[in-house]
Every structure is written in C-alpha cells, then in structure tokens.
Automatic annotation (TrEMBL):
Domain GH3 middle: residue ranges: 297-362
Pfam family, one: GH3_C
Coiled coil: none
Taxonomic classification: Bacteria, Pseudomonadati, Bacteroidota, Flavobacteriia, Flavobacteriales
Any one of the GO CC terms: cytoplasm
Name by which UniProt lists this protein: GH3 auxin-responsive promoter
Species name: Ulvibacter antarcticus
Top-level taxonomic group: Bacteria
PANTHER family documented for this protein: GH3 DOMAIN-CONTAINING PROTEIN
Amino acid sequence: MAILGTIIKAAIDLRDSLVSETSPVEAQKEVLKDLLTKAKETSFGKYYGFKKILEAEDMTKAFSDAIPYHDYDLMKSEWWDRVIDGHEDITWPGKPAYFALSSGTTGKTSKRIPVTEAMIDAIRAAGIKQVGALTNFDLPADFFEKEIMMLGSSTDLTERGEFLEGEISGISASNIPFWFSGYYKPGTDVAKIDDWDERVQTIAERAKNWDIGALSGIPSWMELMMKKVIAHHNLKTIHDIWPNLQVFTSGGVAFQPYEKSFNLLLSKPITVIDTYLASEGFIAFQSRPETTAMKLVTDNGIYFEFVPFKPEYIKEDGSLDQEAPVLTLSEVKKDTDYVLIISTVSGTWRYLIGDTVAFTDVDRAEIVITGRTKFFLNVVGSQLSVNKMDVALRELEQQFDIEIPEFTVAAVEIDNEFYHSWYLGTDATIEPKKLSEALDKALQEANKNYKVARNKALKGVIVHTVAADVFYEWNARNKKKGGQVKMARVMKEDKFTEWEAFVKSL
C-alpha cells in the first residue's frame, strides 16, 4: 500500500476542504484593489492617479478609463526601459528580480518582461493550487509518490547587470520549493544544461533511474524527448521505462493537435491536464476532469479584462485600437472570443498578452485559448482564428487516419487571386489535392465567415506536406530548441517567403 502517497493525498484533500474559495468576480475586485494599493507610489501609479482610482465609486471603470491599453512595445518604450536601466519604483515597487525572455512565435529579438518576487510567489501559489486540483482527477494514492519530469528551458539563468534572465519555465524551475526538489526531474544539474540536444540526451541516459509519474511541458518538445528516450533504450513506448507515468501537464499551446502523435508513444492512456503559464504569469489551469477548459487564477496577482475579438478593434500589427470596448469578468459571455488584457504584480498594466480566449463556463471562470491576435487570417474577410484551424485539422486527422501535430499557413496572392497556402507537418502520403479539398470543406463547416469568403474573393486552398521535424528545425534555426518556443501558426508574407525557402533548402 502506498502509505506516503495516501498521506499526501489526504493532506491535499484536507487543505482544500479548509480553504473557502471566493467567487471569481469578487476575487478580481480584491486583486485590482491590491494591485493599485501596492503600486500607487510608483511612477506609473502616480502618473495615472492610482490614489484617485482607489477612491472612485466604480473602481474598475475608473481604472479602464484612466489607463490606455499597452502592448509590449509601448510598455517597454514608455516604462520598462527605465526598469531595465536599473531604476526603482517604475511600474511596481522596487526592482524586479528577473526578466523573462520571450520571443513568442515571431522569431524576433526576445522580449524582456519583468518578473518580480511577488510574481514568483504568485506562480508558486498557483502551482500549489494546481497540485491541489489533482485530487479531482481520481488518481491513485501512489501517484503522489512519483517523480515529475519538467521539461522547460534551461535553469542556468544569464546575468545581465543586476538582473537574471531566462525563459519563464527556467525561472520557475529555478525557484521550486525545497520540499518539491525530491520529486523534480531531471534535477537541477541536468536542468542547467543550456544546449537542448545535450540536455535531452542526458535525460535519455538517466531515464532508467527515475520513476516518473507525470510529465510537464510543451507537447512538441515533450514528444521529441520521449522519442529520444525510447530510441536510446530500444523500447516500443515510454511506458516500457516509466510504467507509472499517468499524467501529462501540457503548457503553452493546446494539446489537441498533438494528441494522436503523442498517444503513439504510450502503451496506455494517461490523464492530460492543460495549463496556461506565460512569461507574464500563471494565468489558468485545468481544475477538473469533466472539461478540458482551464480555470482562470482570479485570486492571485493578476487582474483580467476582456476586449471582444472583432477585426475592427485589431490593428495590422496585432495591437488594439484604444477605442476598443472592454469588459470585466462580471460582463463576459460564454462562447465568445475575447482579447485577453492583464495587469499584474510584475508591473504590467492593461497589457495585451497577445492571446484570445473564450469562456466555456462563466460562473467557474473557465476558458479555452482560441488563438493569437497576430495569428488571425482575415484576408478578404475569412476571419479564421487558430482554434477554427485546429478544428478543421482534427477533421482531416479523422478522415484520413493521419497525424498533423504541426502546421503553418499564410495568405498568398497568385495571378491577382488570393489563396490560403498551408504547410502540414505529417508523414502521411495523401495526395495534396485531396487534402486541399478536405481542408477547404472542413474550414467552411467550422467558420461561416470563411465560407462566405470562399464564395467571393478567396480563390482556394493550397496544401503542402512536410515532415513535422521540419518545423522543429525551423524553430532551432530561428530561435532555439525546447523551452517556450512555439511555431507560428499564421505567417506574414515576408516570413512565409523565408519559410518556403527554408523548406526547399532541405
């Protein structure tokens, strides 16, 4: 009998029963008040009159009326450059301990996003909440004795002046609680290896020494790691070396595109739990097995606002029109796409994180990520978001019994006609014309605006197939392997030209 696991599970259950949960709407009001109170003496707080906002009869409206939307470029040029230069009390009291490097999916120079000690505490607290929620998934007691493989970026952070820099997964892993260190794999020595291939090779060599019960990371890189372990030990599946693997905590991107290819590496089903950890904070996690949606962390250092995701509110570069209307958590509706806006204990204020979300359950504050503001294909009115693309590709997987874990698409003009040009990451040998016709049909069924566009100015769909590894090599060339690196689902014309040249060069 797993005595230790039983004790740990019982302790988690007891803790959850003793902690009463405030409603998400009320929790958000308290978070906003706390943020404004703590930051009122900062340069940002003084400039935008936080004291006056705190005294307003309707604090949430006063807050949104007083402060403009900020994307990264605006936040950096007007405020964070001074933080980077070492000045105190700019957008949050004191100085940040870290900067999270995030190149996102653009391949441009890394963004440098402040990460304060308050944010580290908030991320840790959200992680504990997520661990507590594991008891909702009917896992056996012995699961809570097993080790957890966290495959993120290197924890060997870079010194830059008085700050430490790295990706958020590396920063988080370098701040794990002492009581968790015994469960954490690959361990601090391996996690510090900067070269991804070397780190994964080391994991493969040491894999037989560990009893892994859970995996945590971005699906694409986790798949490559598992393939490396399987190949190194000449196995059929990952369960041949980690028989007690029962959970995968997916983060950064939706798991559904990877589900079929991921399951091929397993000998038995595992529980998949989605999380939403961004460079700006721990935003949400799946808290119950009845849904794949994630619960917003509404009581822990992040205040959320929501802008209806409509083309007229989104500029060409993906930023927001300052006149775009905004809603609080108390005003949102189910099954509607919103641009996510956050204000946090790291000193981000009314910040456009770049993601779009939709609520599946408003009362529980449960969401799904539906796409990116920059990954929104709206040539000639097609209005295709990433989640609609994912729905169509899952139809293709079913129809042809294939796996398509990766893709990218761009709008191209050929002989004065507009097309959507797709590259699908798959080993399938289906005729491209058949895939084009099936994808076009699936997209029309998934999105009425796309169907209208196809009957007017959008001429058609062009499909190319390449091995999924091509996408990973592209990422390696443009950024680096592993960590928070994700493939751009929608490309602009100039980047797409580079991509096509890269594919042809292989």
